Automatic annotation (TrEMBL):
The chain crosses the membrane at residues 17-35. Belongs to the sulfatase-modifying factor family. It comes from the Eukaryota. GO terms for molecular function: formylglycine-generating oxidase activity. It comes from Branchiostoma lanceolatum (Common lancelet). This is SUMF1 protein. PANTHER family: FORMYLGLYCINE-GENERATING ENZYME (PTHR23150:SF19), SULFATASE MODIFYING FACTOR 1, 2 (PTHR23150). The gene is SUMF1. The keyword Transmembrane helix applies. One of its GO terms (cellular component) is endoplasmic reticulum. Gene3D superfamilies: paralog of FGE (formylglycine-generating enzyme). Keywords: Membrane, Transmembrane, Transmembrane helix. Residues 96-375 form the Sulfatase-modifying factor enzyme-like domain.
Amino acid sequence: MAASIAKKNFSCQWQCHILYLYVVVLLLVFIPVLLQGQEAEEASCKSDKDESCGCAATSRDKATYSKPVEGEGGAETPKFDKDAARTAKSSTTTRTNQMVFVRGGEFTMGTDAVKFPQDGEGPARRVRVDSFHADVYEVSNAEFDIFVREAGYVTEAEKFGDSFVLENLISEKVKSEITQAVAGAPWWLPVKGADWRHPEGLDSDIINRMDHPVVHVSWNDAVAYCTWAGKRLPTEAEWEYASRGGLENRLYPWGNNPMPKGEHRMNIWQGKFPEVNTEEDGYVSTAPVTSYKPNKFGLYNTAGNVWEWVSDWLSVRHTQELQVNPKGPASSATNDKVKKGGSYMCHEDYCYRYRNAARSQNTPDSSASNLGFRCFADKLPQGVEEVKL
């Protein structure tokens, strides 16, 4: 009888071992599949076809082109030959390195009236942020020029030798040397020599645009500037809280009317995109960072003008539970950082992303002629003027 019991126990042990191995094999096979499925779902949310200015298509390592490269095109980027004039112009430009104190609080982030589900605009959710200081203006060419000269910094667009520019802004000479366009958004062209000093290519400059927002800056460039200035990029929650200016559930920083009393309050596209911009708001491209009226927190141009980088990695899934000082996910399945605010290329019928809740994304090394930033800080850095409301 003892032998029979031992034989039975031995048989049970083998059955348990076989079952254990079977479970382990299943886990090894299916967990990677599930993880890939999750990443694919997040990526598919982003790639769903939508009416857009194609701003997310200008990611440097993801852009695909509508026709094959036929040659190198363009020309070797020369050294900027107008340094003296640029520096002289910069020295006479009014400084815009000013910050305002924003008292923290709780607000409704995102929206349930979602326009672009693939962007992760919704759902509406309660978020609480601590107090912070925010740049009153987007970082201007003049301020970025000071940083470059003092730090000896070279932007990623300069290192790569090109950047994305809206076709309408490029000269015929430069355009004739370009052999490709972004697939699905052919108004975006990769231009040799386009960078913050040459916004539309080698035959352009910023001498008369020192008070305009700096463009062709990557997320990495923006972080470098903020660090040099003793500041940081805002979280997406901080940025949206600041942009809303204390108003709950409003489309724009000032309310729901895009043109209160018939007055332009932001720099966006008027006319038929991308063929015609009537410039009714006064600008075909960027506007000075001091343009239009500020919101109730004293911030200018958080809607339109240029997209603004924030610190968060992209996620299109959000909890509806109260979040306190959310910083976004630890990484992004698509290697994208979030940008907010829309730009001068946005139009309600085509890329309605100049709303407070709207968002888009690019990889951290990407740059374009409508992409800039502003800095935030936990406390006022030394030498920075604080604007009192």
